[in-house]
Amino acid sequence: MNRTYLRIPVIKAGNPEQEGDYRLGFMDLTILSGRANRALARSTAALLDAGLGRCKIEEFPDNELRIEIQENLRDHDVYLIQPVSPPVAENLLELLMLADACRRAGASRLTAVLPYLGYARQDRRYGEGEAVGGRLIADVLCTRFDRIITVDLHNPAIEGFFSIPLEHISATRLLAQNLWPLITEGSILVAPDLGAVKLAQKYASLLDLPVAYIHKVRVSGEKVRVSEIIGDIKGRSPVLVDDMISTGGTIVSALDALMDAGARKPITVAATHGLLVGGARRNLSLRPVGKLILSDSIHLQNEGHLAIERISLDQLLARAVERQHTEIE
Ligand code: R5P
Predict the structure, then answer these.
(1) Atom of ligand 1 nearest to the CA of 247
(2) From the CB of 242, is ligand 1 less than 6 Å away?
């Protein structure tokens, strides 16, 4: 699997940005990782029977990065694994610097594997004069990569921001498999806001559960308020699902509202992306959360007092890489 016969773009000598014609030939597979989530990159590479390609990432005293790929990537099909997670600006720049280094080291095809894509919530302008961060990030990535593989985008419409092929993987089925043993007769799926309704319906159909919805009003970046719960949750065991937990504001206010409305404790929570910034860990640990299930799209330094069940995305990512690497163009 590690060699595949493909159309290889002929890069015009001396200018990595200018593509020439194509020729047919073999491309070797190389997996590289930035520093944002090496554990996930390592286990994904291992499933593909590959190690991580050698590269050196250093920081100068003034905070500038220096990146050096320490192998020849000529005729290689390179997959660069890096979530665009906090610290977002640093991880994004590192990803772009790595891409530049790969091109200059001769990579024939370069794919960004983004287990989490930051800025995806900025998919439109909410007020005059606002930047559309999601579009900007997409534009920048398109200048350096040939393809993108990503997982559970906050808004699937973001796919349209990319002018290069993008494979959008869903972790819903994987997380649902891990929720299955926790489901009881009184379980009910709950969407913590109207944006999560489709996601909750998907989980509900996989787990064969009814759905309730919460109407959330965002007061500030960290604070949200529940205005209404649609559905009868009294005496039932809620399973709260969302695409991401950032400050925890959305989930915490949903937990409080569910408890006030007479839901049964403890409550199960699942999300693909656990950023857990600000007071998220503390605030969640003060609520009756039975189990918090998160994927490992984002590396967490310290899980604090929270009991988190982490489900690895390595198999999903490895399968996507294998598909792309072996597909004949
Ligand atoms: C919002 O639409 C998202 O799906 C999440 O509910 C939200 O962004 C999570 O952020 P936080 O944890 O800060 O409330």
Answers:
(1) 13
(2) yes
Cβ–Cβ under 8 Å, residues 284 and 301:
no
Helical axes 133-144 vs 88-104, angle rounded to 10°: 20
Q: Which residues are catalytic?
A: 216
Give the whole-angstrom CA distance, residue 284 versus residue 46.
34
Cα–Cα dist 94/32, whole Å: 12
What mean pLDDT do residues 162-189 have?
Answer: 97
Q: What is the pTM of this model?
A: 0.91
DSSP string for residues in 225-262 = EEEEEES--TT-EEEEEEEEESSSHHHHHHHHHHHHTT
Cα-based torsion angle of the residue sequence 253, 258, 261, 265 in order, rounded to the nearest 10 degrees: -130
For residue 123, give both structure tokens.
């998919």
**Distance from residue 253's CA to the centre of ligand 1 (Å):** 11
> Dihedral sign, CA of 97, 99, 103, 105?
positive
CA dihedral 316→318→320→325, nearest 10 degrees, is -170
- Check pocket membership of 244 for ligand 1, CB cut-off 6 A: yes
Strands (E), 98-152: 109-114, 147-151
Q: Find all residues with CB under 8 Å of 166, minimum gap 6, and list them.
A: 147, 148, 149, 150, 159
Alpha-carbon span 148 to 79, nearest angstrom? 9
- Reported as a pLDDT band with limits 50, 70 and 90, residue 328 is low
What's the pLDDT score for residue 114?
A: 98
- Strand partners of residue 35: none
